[in-house]
Amino acid sequence: MNKIKIAVQKSGRLNEDSLQLLKDCGISIDNGKDQLKASASNFPLEVLYLRNGDIPQYLRDGVVDIAIIGENVLIEKGEDISIVERLGFSKCRVSLAVPKEVKYTSIKDLDGMRIATSYPNTVINYFKKFNVTPDIHLINGSVEIAPNIGLADAICDIVSSGSTLFKNNLKEVEKMLTSEAVLAVSPNISSENQKILDKLQFRIQAVLKGRKSKYVLMNAPNNKVESIIKLLPGMRSPTVLPLAEPGWSSIHTVVEKNSFWEVIDELKANGAEGLLVVPIEKMVL
């Protein structure tokens, strides 16, 4: 039986979030400690644990069929690789930072300056837009220390909370791009494995939709039901069921997390009572 090969980051937060996504898709990985390859026991899938920066080439060569990878890595090393799904986790940005004491007005200030980074292509392409030429110093790991030891005038690195920059006396001055985990596919994937990918992607989409939504149940007097329904952005139409108490109904619907609190406030203002909010594990549309 054919198995689809998926690459995930060997360690770190992206590794944990990737494996959690597969678990939420109902896929059990037989994963021993320090294994570099593991198979699923209930789905035709094999996981390869690889260095993030090596994954684009593995995709290009067809060694793996798909990968969960940071979009920033594809921008740097794999712009020819197709993205089939944005996954919504491991969000970050790639930014330029300078020492706090440096007066910064625009990117022109960095013309000819030494930039320490693990993302040379990203830096060069960004600076080209402004006709600025940086002096790239390629560093793998601990980029943020470069200005403090006199190796560089500025850095380009991934930023999540900004705490690492703060600890190293740096300030963020340019946000070059935003990134999140994505599902990328090899240009050499076989037709058989494409069918497996379609099944996997169906599961992933159901999980992601569930993560973005809440199931909301509420009670309301019958004379308020119509006005409440108008407020609900449900999948199609809310479910309305009569309660044992005459003149009252129970209304069930799905609300997106991003608009959840605004919708709840409006529902209460329009007569909804006894609201119950339930997480959704998966949502198949």
Structure commentary:
By secondary structure, this protein is α/β, with parallel strands linked by helices. The protein has three domains: 4-90 and 180-189, D-Maltodextrin-Binding Protein, domain 2, CATH 3.40.190.10; 92-179, Periplasmic binding protein-like II (D-Maltodextrin-Binding Protein, domain 2, 3-Layer(aba) Sandwich), CATH 3.40.190.10; 213-279, Alpha-Beta Plaits (2-Layer Sandwich). Helix content is 28%, strand content 32%. The protein is built from eight helices and 15 strands. Its cofactor is Mg(2+). It is an enzyme of class 2 (transferase). One of its GO terms (biological process) is L-histidine biosynthetic process. Pfam families: HisG, HisG_C.
Instruction: List the helices and strands in order.
Output: EHEEHEHEEEHEEHEEHEHEEHE
Outline: globular
Distance between the termini: 29 Å
Q: Can you tell me the CATH architecture of the largest domain?
A: 3-Layer(aba) Sandwich
The percent range for helix content is 25-40%
> How many structural domains are formed by the residues?
3
Low-confidence stretches: none
Based on secondary structure, the structural category is alpha/beta
> How many strand segments?
15
Query: What topology, given as strand order, has the largest sheet?
Result: 2-3-1-4-11-5
CATH superfamily of the largest domain: Periplasmic binding protein-like II
Provide the β-strand percentage band.
25-35%
**Biggest sheet layout:** 6 strands, mixed
Radius of gyration: 24 Å
Mean pLDDT: 92
CATH topology name of the largest domain, in short, is: D-Maltodextrin-Binding Protein, domain 2
Number of helices: 8
CATH secondary-structure class of the largest domain: Alpha Beta
GO cellular component, one term: cytoplasm
Catalytic activity: 1-(5-phospho-beta-D-ribosyl)-ATP + diphosphate = 5-phospho-alpha-D-ribose 1-diphosphate + ATP
Family: Belongs to the ATP phosphoribosyltransferase family. Long subfamily.
Pathway: Amino-acid biosynthesis; L-histidine biosynthesis; L-histidine from 5-phospho-alpha-D-ribose 1-diphosphate: step 1/9
